[in-house]
């Protein structure tokens, strides 16, 4: 393996563009690499790349081919399957681009967050996922889907799972009871930290995820949040320049916030309204917040996780087509949030242990 021996070790971190969740959870991982003396650059596409530009203004950024997966239907098999040829083509193209980037800029480590083509024969390669066991809506396609999933995960030297090692952890069946020998649990990760703040908002709605479902939910939330007699806030999750903050009755709407700004607003809010994506769940754990979770229609992972957390009385779940925040507030006291703490030690050790695999 070609690697650096005398200069600072270099990491290329490649999050998937499937909403902002993969890029958001890449932030604390990138900061841990930096803390331990690595330089970190990024390769992605679309909004995740723009988010990371704002968080790491001195880093180098590379554009990867996009996958273009959207959620026009409530069936994940149809949503992904209808673009499978495009998906495979983009996977091969991103692999070619990553190899060219590594060859030109001499990276030592490539870290891929759910991008199957981001690895190189000249680097130490790490794949990050909380879905080592992917679930389809009916379960009938699970074996075939996971043959594909595990085939690509095995191309990497390590598979990092951002969860606690002991089952069920936070991911339940998604992240446990697998047959991958090179998997390593790095603990839940979050870009946020807990602190005491005075309460400014009763409800804070934080949007993320692929279109058109993100926009459909934003429209519903704007209508409902503006009717409440107490202060609410809506963060749209759209990385864009020059879009003004808007105020409607008691609701304040921010198109986008940096990690630090979002951390503060969520700390100042009593209840979070959000999707049921795993990155969002880890953020809720980090902040110790109650939440109303609305799974993205057709996204099996979110449907599974939100049902799991509702059964445990952690988070209240509502369907997007039947969203009623007023009724949710009447029932929210029966839910506790997740009574766990995020520990950094597992991730710190995973990064530290990489030194034994690298030359020099």
Record the SSE blueprint.
Elements: E1 10-15, H1 21-35, E2 39-44, H2 46-55, E3 61-63, H3 76-81, H4 84-105, E4 109-113, E5 124-128, H5 142-153, E6 158-161, E7 183-185, E8 201-206, H6 213-225, E9 232-235, E10 246-248, E11 251-254, H7 259-267, E12 269-274, H8 278-287, E13 290-293, H9 300-311, E14 316-317, H10 325-331, H11 345-352
Parallel strand pairs: 1-2, 1-4, 2-3, 4-5, 5-6, 6-7, 8-9, 8-12, 9-11, 12-13, 13-14
Antiparallel strand pairs: 10-11
Helix pairs in contact: 1-2
Short description:
This protein has helices at 21-35, 46-55, 76-81, 84-105, 142-153, 213-225, 259-267, 278-287, 300-311, 325-331, 345-352, and strands at 10-15, 39-44, 61-63, 109-113, 124-128, 158-161, 183-185, 201-206, 232-235, 246-248, 251-254, 269-274, 290-293, 316-317. It is α/β, with parallel strands linked by helices.
Describe this structure in words.
By secondary structure, the chain is an alpha/beta fold. It folds into two domains: 194 residues, Glycogen Phosphorylase B (Rossmann fold, 3-Layer(aba) Sandwich); 134 residues, Rossmann fold. Helix content is 34%, strand content 17%. It has eleven helices and 14 strands. The strands form two sheets. Strands 3-2-1-4-5-6-7 form a seven-stranded parallel beta sheet, with helices on both faces. Strands 10-11-9-8-12-13-14 form a seven-stranded mixed beta sheet, sandwiched between helices. Helix 5 links the parallel strand 5 and strand 6. It is globular and about 60 Å long. The N terminus is likely disordered.
